[in-house]
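Hello K.,

You asked for the raw outputs rather than the summary table, so here they are, unedited. I folded two proteins back to back in the same session to keep the settings identical. This is the first:
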Amino acid sequence: MKAYVVRHAETEWSASGQHTSRTDVPLTENGERRAALVGQLLAALRPPEVPAPAVLCSPRRRAIRTAELAGLPDPEITADLAEWDYGEYEGLTTPQIRESVPGWTVWTHPSPGGETAQQVTVRADRVLAMAADLLTDRDVVLVGHGHFGRVLAARYLGLPATAGVHLALDAGGVTVLGHDRGVPRLDHVNVQPLSLS
């Protein structure tokens, strides 16, 4: 059994590079089309004979809508899958933040009023424990966000949350958490639907 980490499809803020955690922005028209293709991508990545997956989803509407359009029925909503909280940097782009904090990244610097890497680690570990409980008899699809999805993959490999900087997870992307004889590995990283038709 495998876990599939899905980042919600495009929003206006993901397209512009604005940090989006608590702000509940909808998918763009392009995002809606891409979300439907995520369902096709998951079907291609998963063997046809396996049972329907369990689905855990962030409470943000961009994630819920992505799950819906991807054909993932009845997701269990969990606040633990919400995006890394950027605090005062919500809605800002990295270049805007760097005007006052040179070299800032979410991976290396604090976000005033937001979450620390340690707090995000605790949430990611809880999500992975929930997924592990479900993985005994079926796959699990985790529908959430970019930075948090990268943290999930890093933690799955036993790495610190900040190692997520080395992984990509673009809007509508899928990362597959697999294993090699019980040893965690990433089977696929940031797989994208190939077309919009």
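The second followed immediately with the same parameters:
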Amino acid sequence: MIQIDTFEGARAIVQNFRIRILAVAALSLFALVFSGCGAGTSGTTNGPGGDPNATAATVNGKAITMEEVDRGVKQQAQGQDGKFSPLELANARLTVLNTLVQQEVMFQKAEKEGVVPTDDEITTELNRQKVESRMSVEEFNKQLTQAGLDEKSVRDNLKKSLAIKKLVDKVTGKVEQPNDKEIEDFYKGNPEVFVKKRGVRLAAIVVDPNNSGQGDTTTNEAEAGVKVKEVLGKLQMPGSDFAALAREYSEDPQSKGRGGDLGNITEDELKQSYPQLATGFMNPDFTVGRITTVVPLEGKYYIFKLQERIDKDENLTLESPDVRPQINEMLVNTRKQLLAASYQAIALNEARVDNLLAKRIVEFPNELSGARPASTGTPVPAATTPAATTPANVTAPANGNVKADKPADKPAPAANANKPK
């Protein structure tokens, strides 16, 4: 696994952790709608709490139904919930229910703070996500029907996610910018962080053939193949903009949001995970600015662009580009993360939560068999963890294109392996 040992990587980790806490259970529209998370499906009614109309928990008197819980389980399990044993299903349900409870607590706080979005704001965001999905109206409505949802339920989900975001922004808005002394002290106290090591800075457009939510528009190999061909065709057009195409087509949230930028990855990190990838990108014949062909990694398809090659280690100073702004951003985000986590902890402590599902499990523990349905003969992934895939090594031929080689049991370059520029 690529280790994150530079400032930019640490900043990315803080930001990702902050998102998990701040957007607690604010599930995105298309993760809910287009990952096949319909309610009342087979495989989600065995064990305690099997009635979809039953109340799983209440938050200050507001009910969360088993239907909502099982919808989340199906989304988390990527449609594999029918293979769960009663014991695995109960664990998955409790995990999802805890998330829904946190979401409801934060949404009720948002209501009290008067930061619930207007109908117009919901419509604007819904339209934006429809456009971003690149689906036709007919395809969109078909996906809703298959998921057992309608536009009202989609709007309700979106209302909660936008409200929680507004609440978080309001709560963390009181965090002030650090002064120059604090920035300088941070720099002096973390000299090992500010080293730009020999390696490369990459950008990527990622196409994911798996139905993993997070804004994916391809859900199988055939759709992924069509999309990859479309992207490659546009990249070959004169004046094509890799960053703009990454924002439009990439199905990896980080690369999409950063115009494809994956940050700096050291040569040692590349050698550890993909020695042939390191050989290709570190080869002077592979010129900066060159774009690869399709590279399969971890079950996804990457199109890389070499943005920079760093030939030797460089110690960064406070006057190096982006160092001061990055320290400032990290300190602010760390404070916001702590503030938001504390706010959420207080909100959960104050809420009247009655977890009826947990009570039923305690009352009927012997109903929870560990046996999976007889029809499945393959291992089932953990309820909240997608199944691992085997990536591929890559080589760089003389013409500079990177192509797939034989599979290897090594992890792909981490998308958040960002370094100071």
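The two ends are 22 Å apart (CA to CA).

Happy to rerun anything if the numbers look odd on your end.

Regards,
P.
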